[in-house]
Specification:
Blueprint lengths: L2 H23 L4 H7 L10 H23 L4 H17 L50 H16 L7 H6 L7 H10 L1 H10 L3
Helix pairs in contact: 1-3, 1-4, 5-8
């Protein structure tokens, strides 16, 4: 199994697990669904969309297995390239998609602050200065800088924070997804500050 075959197989397995979780969430009301996970903005998927997605995923897994059995290493690479191009060119600013579902529940929302007395003028709070990017332990400075630049670019293009690690890890010459996640967590404040200043 080539590295591309392995990455595509892992991605398809993650997507299948996600679709199965969404199928379990169909019985939840909207409030419970919103608490299930920190979702990106999207239209909640319906049963027929999930069934269609599952059917197509199983079909694609079969094609990947057949091509791998024939020794065709280019098929998985072509799928990775198409996935990357779709992210860049075809999937921006859409809400009708199935976001990746995990077993991680949404973070509790903080209580709304009390309104101040209307008699006193309110000052706009000053945003804290962005933290400088720091090199994640065990990663060369160049790798950290590349991952940060990727994250800033994807955020500026409208991608959501939970999607970044998976998107970046699929790019050529990037670390594994769990390593990308470590770099992103260590540099989140700097990445978000840079993304706000980057024109869309």
């Amino acid at each position: 199994m080539s590295a591309a075959d392995k990455r595509v197989a892992e991605l398809l397995d993650r997507w299948l697990a996600s679709v199965d979780l969404h199928a379990r969430y169909l019985d939840l009301d909207d409030a419970a669904y919103a608490r299930a996970q920190d979702w990106p903005r999207h239209q909640r998927p319906t049963r027929w969309v999930l069934e269609l997605a599952r059917t197509r995923l199983l079909e694609l897994k079969r094609h990947v297995a057949e091509r791998e059995a024939r020794g065709d290493a280019t098929f998985a690479e072509a799928l990775e390239l198409m996935s990357f191009l779709t992210t860049l060119l075809g999937s921006e600013h859409i809400e009708r998609f199935i976001p990746l579902a995990t077993m991680k529940p949404a973070a509790p929302q903080p209580a709304a602050p009390r309104p101040r007395s209307p008699t006193r003028p309110q000052r706009k709070p000053q945003p804290p200065p962005a933290e400088p990017a720091s090199v994640a332990p065990g990663f060369p400075e160049k790798v950290t800088a590349t991952v940060i630049a990727d994250a800033v670019r994807f955020l500026a293009w409208g991608r959501e924070w939970p999607q970044l690690a998976g998107l970046i890890a699929r790019l050529a010459d990037r670390p594994a997804e769990e390593d990308v996640l470590k770099i992103l967590r260590r540099n989140r404040a700097a990445i978000e500050a840079l993304a706000k200043r980057t024109p869309r």
